[in-house]
Specification:
The protein is an alpha/beta fold and about 375 residues long. Helices cover about 35% and strands about 15% of the residues. The strands form 2 sheets. The chain has a 7-stranded mixed β-sheet with strand order 1-7-6-5-4-2-3. Strands 8-9-12-11-10 form a 5-stranded mixed β-sheet. Helix 1 (about 5-10) runs antiparallel to helix 2 (about 65-75), helix 2 (about 65-75) runs parallel beside helix 8 (about 235-245) and helix 3 (about 85-95) crosses helix 7 (about 220-230). The longest helix is centred in the C-terminal third of the chain and has 21 residues, at about 250-270. It binds pyridoxal-5'-phosphate.
């Protein structure tokens, strides 16, 4: 089996039949039926008979989306289904699993938004991740684990929650957005469905919106494809082409971003005396639990957070920086910093979230130093 970077570039070569080195962008929404009337088939009852490789209408499937799903399947050694956003992927996972009870911890606010819609419409009961919460799980229910978690990139023990879920006949969904390949493979520790917001590291250029569900089960994969046709949440044509471009550099980008984030978190953590404005640094590399190194076998989270002493310092800090854009989101090649209180009302108002890009890490550290020394 070729390795990650090779697969990212060559994983779809057998579908790539034209001489253009970059596969052409295909924007068609509909595809011609055969001209042979004897081969025309009436639609049977039941799920729409969508066949991979035989596009009919792009909401069901289209060549660029299938191409990108195939490469992601190979990269992740699983079956991949692509969606038009990370939240569409989460919605699809809940639609498929249809839990009555959801155990969910701290994490991305939008996922809590979906859970709340589920509670409003279907009476879903929500609990946390403590031992007594997990006791509420029954067969078919779901633990939703985000690890490393937004915004501070601390890790939860996937194996522990997989065992708890499975003991109750429930399922474990892992949001692995903060640790894309090659950092973490949640299947190794018992995840049933792995989700990524591909808007972040898979996309990597802050120019596409997409989500991915991964499963080890061909049967689940087929059911997710069938549901997606009617949820109307297939990844778009143009986004697929952009995502395919991004997969070619996934490993290069993510390894560098992970290395740089680890260096910067270490620098900040060791500079608390020199720059007393730094109150606290949160990063998976500063977490001492033994499972962290097992889970993040490819490197630490490329996004982390730190707190300054006051809310006012945090509000003003992004505007002092040259190389970090003040913006939400993460995963792109350009470094971002966010006064996180602007996107999430549950975090400390003195917290800054940093998504480390692929700029030279020394330049990034110098930029942070000049900003810190001015406080
Ligand atoms: C961004 C994000 C999502 C949602 O993804 P979208 O592509 O914005 O819909 C879900 N989980 C995490 C951890 C995220 O960072």
């Amino acid at each position: 089996m070729p390795r990650l970077s090779t697969t990212g570039i060559h994983g779809g070569d057998h579908l790539h039949t034209v001489s253009d080195v970059t596969p052409p962008i295909n924007i068609s929404t509909t595809f011609k039926y055969t001209n042979d009337p004897d081969k025309l088939e009436k639609m049977p009852p039941g799920p729409f008979p969508y066949e991979v490789g035989k596009p009919v209408y792009s909401r069901e499937g289209h060549p660029s989306g299938e191409f990108v799903e195939l490469v992601i399947s190979k990269i992740t050694n699983s079956y991949a289904v692509a969606y038009n956003s990370g939240l569409s992927a989460v919605y699809a996972a809940y639609t498929h699993l249809n839990p009555k009870v959801l155990c969910i911890g701290q994490g991305y606010h939008g996922v809590h938004g979906i859970a709340d819609i589920w509670t409003r419409n279907h009476g879903l009961k929500q609990y946390g991740l403590d031992e007594e919460d997990l006791e509420k799980l029954g067969p078919g229910d779901v633990i939703h684990l985000e690890t490393p978690v937004n915004p501070d990139s601390l890790c939860f023990d996937i194996q522990h929650f997989a065992d708890k879920a499975h003991a109750k006949g429930a399922f474990l969904v892992v949001d692995s957005t903060f640790a894309p390949p090659p950092l973490q493979d949640a299947f190794e520790f018992g995840a049933d469905i792995v989700m990524h917001s591909a808007t972040k590291y898979f996309g990597g250029h802050s120019d596409l919106l997409a989500g991915i569900l991964l499963t080890k089960s061909e049967d689940v994969w087929r059911k997710l494809l069938d549901d997606r046709i009617y949820l109307g949440t297939n990844i778009a044509n143009l986004e697929s082409a952009l995502l395919l471009r991004s997969l070619k550099t996934l490993e290069l980008r993510v390894k560098k971003q992970s290395d740089s984030a680890t260096k910067i978190a270490k620098f900040l953590n060791e500079s608390k005396e020199k720059y007393p404005a730094i109150a606290k640094v949160h990063h998976s590399s500063l977490q001492k639990d033994a499972f962290v190194a097992r889970q993040l076998k490819g490197g630490h989270a490329p996004t982390f957070a730190f707190e300054l002493q006051t809310e006012d310092q945090a509000r003003r800090f992004p505007s002092r920086l040259k190389y970090f854009y003040h913006a939400t989101s993460l995963g792109g090649v350009e470094s971002l910093i966010e006064w996180r209180a602007m996107s999430d009302h549950t975090v400390s108002p003195s917290l800054l979230r940093v998504s480390v890009g692929i700029e030279d890490v020394e330049d990034l550290i110098e930029d942070l130093e000049q900003a810190l020394s001015g406080i």
